[in-house]
Design brief:
Strand content: 5-15%
Largest sheet: 5 strands, parallel
Structural class: alpha/beta
Oligomer: single chain
Length: 260
């Protein structure tokens, strides 16, 4: 909830949220006066902040936060730390997963005439990965990782087409601008992002939210796409429940590995 509502917080509330995420293990030992002092905020601001994320009081906020606090990591062992971070992100993605929305995206894909996936940078690599997966199922899909090509392709879409926009921040303007164009043509627009109340989430007909890697507390962690790949894995496996799509994938795999 802190992540999803972050863009709606005031500047002071964002400072409180940032402090909480950096010090979540110690918040349970604080009272409201302590947090107000550490964040130079009034107690009434702390109370309003708690209510914005669905908690009636600061005590209720601490109880809910304590459920998310894990045991301290072994910071000296990079192998264990990496494993723990991956586990944290995967578990957080599973907890945030809205199965009804995922099933709706699968339905959109099954019914679409053409599918385009838009993403820049690391999100562009995820878009390409998704393209290759669905191509093996004989689905008409393309990944667009150039901002000019996004606008060009979006302008040529229609009401039977589907566009999926990938952006962790939800504020990649090149992606959201292209989605706006696609929306005007009547295309269905799906967003996959970390944050609600962003240009990407506002333009999307349906939005799937993933955890921000910042919640791991490890500023050096570099894999920003793990949560998105998890979502794409789930969608891909659900698509393979269809016998025709499964058959097409098996046929392409046989071609690759037949040695002919």
């Amino acid at each position: 909830m802190l992540q999803l509502e972050y863009q709606r917080f005031s500047a002071k509330e964002k400072e409180i949220a940032d402090y909480v995420m950096r010090n979540k293990s110690s918040i349970n030992n604080m009272n409201i006066r302590d947090l107000a002092a550490y964040t130079t905020a009034s107690m009434s601001t702390i109370t309003r902040f708690c209510k914005k994320v669905g908690c009636s009081t600061f005590v209720d906020f601490k109880i809910r936060l304590s459920r998310e606090v894990h045991q301290p990591r072994n910071e000296t062992d990079i192998f264990i730390r990496t494993q723990q971070i991956h586990n944290d992100i995967i578990n957080a993605t599973a907890e945030m997963l809205d199965t009804d929305k995922i099933k709706q995206v699968v339905q959109y894909i099954m019914e679409a005439r053409r599918i385009y996936v838009y993403g820049l940078g690391s999100s562009g690599l995820s878009a390409l990965e998704f393209k290759y997966r669905l191509m093996r199922m004989d689905i008409a899909i393309d990944a667009v990782t150039d901002s000019h090509m996004m606008l060009m392709s979006a302008s040529l879409l229609g009401k039977d087409d589907l566009v999926i926009g990938l952006s962790n921040s939800g504020r990649t303007l090149e992606v959201s601008d292209a989605l706006k164009v696609a929306k005007k043509t009547g295309s269905t627009v799906v967003g996959i992002t970390n944050f609600d109340h962003t240009p990407l989430s506002e333009i999307s007909d349906l939005c799937i939210f993933t955890p921000d890697i910042g919640r791991t507390g490890d500023v050096n962690f570099i894999n920003s796409q793990l949560a998105i790949i998890y979502i794409l894995d789930v969608i891909s496996l659900l698509l393979l429940d269809d016998k025709n799509l499964l058959k097409a994938r098996q046929q392409t795999l046989r071609t690759f590995y037949s040695g002919d």
